[in-house]
Write a structure and sequence with these properties.
Layout (H helix, E strand, L loop, with lengths): L14 H15 L11 H8 L3 H13 L3 E4 L3 E4 L8 E7 L4 H14 L3 E7 L4 H10 L6 E4 L8 H4 L7 E5 L9 E4 L2 H11 L1 H4 L4 E5 L6 H13 L4 E4 L11 E5 L2 H12 L9 E6 L3 H5 L5 E5 L1 H13 L5 E3 L2 E4 L5
Parallel strand pairs: 3-4, 3-5, 5-6, 6-7, 7-13, 8-9, 8-10, 10-11, 11-12
Antiparallel strand pairs: 1-2, 12-14
Helix pairs in contact: 1-3, 2-3, 4-12, 7-9
């Protein structure tokens, strides 16, 4: 071993920080390289007459930052030579699409260069969701989790430190103890449909395309709107066998179904915005252009990324409802 842990008792720097500084210094000087083993917790504890907790605190910080890793039965090894990383964040998305990519990029830009973000995807699979969290408990400084509409997610999230978790996009009562940057889907769809009420009343029926990946609040808000304003409404789970009729407006939460309905319209004599209407979810640059512009209900994903970063950087414990707006374009 070419380096030594140096502990000085007559300085104010905490002893666990001195351990960290010794290991970082050895990496910076080249005495320690990626893959090298470092002294064990017991070896450092006994040599410097420290408590096990002091050494473990230092190792856990280095591990959370991704600088060292533990291998069961063998010990601790250098896993990264980038000692400039001050925090390592676990980011669990449901899936990646264009607007979530905007959120992700905004989040990274707002955090700065000294924070590493590792992104994972559960693809609406509860078993995968559980495994990803279980496999990474204790390996990160902070956990950002997008539970989507999966059931009983708190059974897994409760294994993480409550002050190191932020829930993203969708939340629920079982997750109320955690910080969150979220959308209020029930309120947002209701409020934005009320804004478009005069346009909606020019049509005969409002149709929501809703599947099991969509937030339940969206369905609740839709039903509340059609009940309160006596609008003829229908909920369908697929456009595959749907025959489009004049006088219908379709609310389409996902982009695959948006493309399907545009293609279906082109195969009929129906004219968009005159005979049939579309309201899409989650605005993108493409939706400003397609068919002269698609009306959207959308949150500000760039703002969501910035607010998420602020919670982590400022160590806030807060719940932030991200704003959501209606953008009326040619499709309505």
């Amino acid at each position: 071993m070419l380096f030594m842990i140096i502990i000085k008792k007559d300085i104010k720097t905490p002893k666990y920080k001195q351990i960290i500084n010794s290991i970082e210094g050895a990496i910076a000087s080249g005495d320690l390289k990626k893959g090298d083993q470092i002294p064990s917790i017991n070896a450092i504890k006994d040599k410097h007459k420290l408590s096990r907790d002091t050494v473990l605190m230092a190792f856990n910080e280095l591990k959370n930052r991704g600088i060292i890793q533990s291998i069961v039965g063998k010990g601790y090894y250098v896993s990264s030579e980038n000692i400039n990383i001050t925090q390592k964040i676990f980011l669990l998305f449901d899936e990646l699409n264009s607007f979530k990519e905007d959120l992700y990029n905004s989040f990274l830009e707002s955090l700065g260069d000294t924070i590493q973000v590792d992104i994972f995807f559960h693809h609406f699979n509860k078993n995968l969701f559980s495994k990803l969290i279980t496999d990474n408990v204790g390996d990160y400084n902070y956990y950002v989790i997008m539970p989507a509409n999966l059931k009983n997610t708190n059974d897994d999230i409760k294994n993480l430190p409550i002050d190191k978790v932020c829930i993203l996009d969708q939340t629920n009562e079982s997750l109320s103890q955690y910080s969150a940057v979220y959308q209020n889907f029930e309120k947002d769809i209701y409020r934005n449909l009320v804004k478009a009420l005069l346009l909606i009343k020019k049509y005969e029926k409002l149709v929501l395309v809703f599947n099991d990946k969509q937030p339940q609040g969206m369905l609740s808000g839709f039903n509340m709107f059609i009940d309160n304003y006596s609008i003829s409404g229908e909920v369908i789970n697929s456009l595959n066998d749907r025959f489009l009729s004049e006088g219908e407006i379709y609310i389409v939460p996902d982009d695959k179904n948006l493309l399907r309905i545009i293609k279906k319209i082109k195969d009929t004599p129906l004219e968009l915005a005159k005979d049939i209407g579309i309201i899409s979810y989650n605005d993108t640059l493409l939706k400003e252009i397609v068919e002269g512009g698609i009306t959207t209900i959308s949150t500000d994903f760039n703002m969501m990324g910035k607010r998420l970063a602020k919670i982590i950087l400022d160590k806030e414990q807060s719940k932030i409802e991200n704003p959501n707006n209606l953008i009326i374009r040619n499709s309505l």
